[in-house]
Amino acid sequence: MEPDNPAPSTTRRIAIDPVTRVEGHGKITLLIDDDQHIVEARFHIVEFRGFEKFIQGRPYWEVPFFVQRLCGICPVSHQLAAAKAVDQIAGIGQLTPTATKLRRLLHFGQILQSHALHFFHLSSPDFLFGFGSDPRQRNIAGVLEQYPEIALKGVKLRKFGQQIIEAITGKRVHGTGTVPGGMNKALTAAERDALLAGIGDILQWSQDAVALNEHIHTAHPEHRDFGTFPSHYLSLTGSGGELEFYHGGLRARAADGSTLHDQFDYCDYQRLLSEEVRSWSYLKFPYFSSLGTERGWYRVGPLARINNCDAIPTPLAEAARQRFKATGNGGPVHDTLAYHWARMIELLHCTESIHNLLTDTDITGTDLLTSKGEHQPQGIGVIEAPRGTLFHHYHVNDDGLVTQANLIVSTTSNNQAMNESVRAVANRYLDGQEITEALLNHLEVAVRAYDPCLSCATHALGKMPLQVTLQHTGGSVIHQLTKKTDGVIQ
Amino acid sequence: MTKPKFKIATTSLAGCFGCHMSFLDMDERLAGLLEQVEFDRSPLTDIKHCGPCDIGLIEGGVCNAENVHVLREFRASCKILVAVGACAINGGVPAMRNYFDLQDCLEEVYLRGANVTHPRIPDDPELPLLLDKVYPVSEIVAIDYFLPGCPPSADAFLQLLQPLLAGQQPDIASTRLHYD
User: What is the pTM for the complete model shown?
Assistant: First the structure.
């Protein structure tokens, strides 16, 4: 099959490979003509996992622990989305108050640690040192050296989120916790008290994180249109339109702020969304079916959630949201770099919510399980993962073995938007210029705003080989593969 | 005179990034480690290609041609190469696709997926050639140390690195070694 838009033969190719300071692996390619004009700019996802195939035949109760191992950055979000689907398959309705609150606490811990990691460990060097600063300094080690107070607050905020996850699931990464109909372990009073001990500092640092990002965004007018464009937004909201990460209805807003859907039942997501396949990325391109591939793409994640919700049910984060909203002049805030500001508002909301849950008497309850009901042939679980709305959908047979799986992970929903941002920055900053490392980092700054989670594959330098030979360390050939010109792999 | 720092490179092949997350779980101890070491190529830095390094940490198995290339680059650049976590050591969860035909996996996702528009199998030259199976890193290059776990804990990372930085053989407490 021919690639989309084959390039004229006179163009020069530049690749940013791998894109760094993101979780996982992607690459950006530019095609530039003789006059240094950008002909094409693309953000490729080069990973392929095939999860939908190899999960087939596994028992449904394995799924939450299985799927979380496809992502080490937000394993809890995958575990919880799958757990919600598995509850449906087991015919379970409402969980006990303690189980529900433990799952919510677990998810707040996940979002807190992920948001802290993303801003402080990965993205903050761009803002503290400048987009075009010395690449040898532009990393968390450089921030620890130059801005130890900021870096250490970030490290400790992430640590707190991880400690919550560890207390509930037994491990910081890939723990257990959920079972069909509830949770497998109560939170002890001692564990709760240990988590509450430092909450005052965590609250203060969370507010500092919002203030820092608010300052960065408002003090730099050039940030406002950096890779910015109007887009639609999708997220869950609570029944009253409030910010909600764990359970709710889908709300879709159009670029002008009007409502496309509200409290849309996520079990009907296949009526709402379709996914387009393109030849140059393993990541699909989702869109609202009613608007089509050209107009129907949308953004998810912190920017979508803060734009979509009518209120945040904790006071400090709500006050921060009001200040955020004021920059939108009555409409959605489309600024791509405002993702960071929105992310820190959510981080503050997580801290306030964690505080509330840890002081709720239900949280140390021991009534953790609801009885199973009638076995169902399918289950759909949807949750707001740190990077956006996450869909898990499983079909099972009468023996409880998975026969079909469909996942729309958060970063997939931002695929078109990341490409739009890369194109916008390429055309604004790189077009007609002599390409330098500093300019190339501008493209990565745009991608990092989305906090893409691309875990799995990695890249080679130079031209892709059409034949690869795997040799044992002893020299013997293990396997040889050839890709023919028609794309068939032998 | 300041002692030159040890250089550490890290990469994720076909893994989930969980081992890198666990590495960062050293929390404040990361600052102490950075007094002794500096990162070369790593997802945490903007160094795109590995230079000469003392220690390389590899997370993930080998699922495509670029994984092979990066792994060989690490082997050539790093004096000590460590396979970190279940995927690097035995392929882990991504290797579950080894029970299926690769073409069938691709068709399931891109041709038979729910609500798919323009069904086709991505085949652009920018996409790396997939291997028929996911391989452990030790099938491709010689590995000096294996740090098991899904993922290994932050303590396990430190108990591996501290002796290596002191020129000694690591001796990790069995309580720190997990295979789950």
Answer: 0.92
